[in-house]
Structures are given as C-alpha cells and as structure tokens.
Specification:
By secondary structure, the chain is an all-alpha fold. It has one domain: Fumarate reductase/succinate dehydrogenase, transmembrane subunit (3 helical TM bundles of succinate and fumarate reductases). The protein is built from four helices and no strands. The longest helix has 32 residues.
Length: 131
C-alpha cells in the first residue's frame, strides 16, 4: 500500500491576500468604480438644472450647498472621476484596436492615465477658480 500524500498548505488559486495586482488591474477596477460614481454624480447635475428651473430661491439653496466645503469636495471628486474615466477610457479604446498590449507599453499607459488625470483636473480647477 502507498502512503497518502501530505496535504499542501497553500491556496488553490492566487487570492488577493497573497497576490499583488498589477497597476493595470487596479486602474481597470477603478475605471468601473468611477463609472458608477459618475452615474451617481449626474444626480448633482440634475439638482443644479432643476433648481435653476424652479426659480431664484431654489437656485440660491443649490448655490449655498455647492459653495460649501462638502459641495466643493463633491465637485472635486466628480471632476477627478470624470477626467480619470476619460483618460482610462481612451486607453481602453487603444486596447480595443489591439495597441499597447506589451508590458512596457501598458506600464507607460498606466502612468499617462494617472498624469493625464492630475493635469486635466488641476487645469480645470485652476481655470474655474480664476474666473
């Protein structure tokens, strides 16, 4: 008779506790999250349009809310999500046509997406605050 094999104490598949996701995977996950955030953020835009339609009192309430620190935080988060989703969506379009599949190209595209998000967000906020 043969002896039973010793059980191996390791996971059967790479779990998140032991597997380090590459940056491209994190960016892909974040792309989906920002898509949901942008969908929810359209409620804020709808509130803006509806308040303008309801008259000066409703719009003044909206302006008071959006001018508060929480309002600025929501606008900042919305703008970061918008520009990130835009930049990463462009990268996904390149992937759809079969470009940038090599590891070095993907790493370069990761950095471009992150830098593009920062530059576009900062540019939009600097332009808006200067007005």
């Amino acid at each position: 008779m043969t002896q039973a094999a010793k059980p191996v104490s390791r996971p059967l598949s790479p779990h998140l506790q032991v597997y380090r996701l590459p940056l491209a995977a994190w960016l892909s996950i974040t792309h989906r999250i920002t898509g949901v955030g942008l969908t929810i953020g359209t409620v804020l835009l709808t509130y803006w349009i509806v308040s303008a339609a309801y008259g000066p009192d409703a719009y003044a309430r909206f302006a008071g809310f959006i001018g508060s620190p929480i309002g600025y935080l929501l606008l900042f988060g919305f703008s970061v999500a918008l520009f990130y989703h835009l930049c990463n969506g462009i990268r996904h379009l390149f992937w759809d046509i079969g470009m940038n599949y090599e590891i070095a190209e993907t790493k370069r595209a990761n950095i471009i997406v992150l830098l593009g998000t920062v530059v576009l967000t900062a540019g939009a906020w600097l332009l808006a605050l200067a007005m």
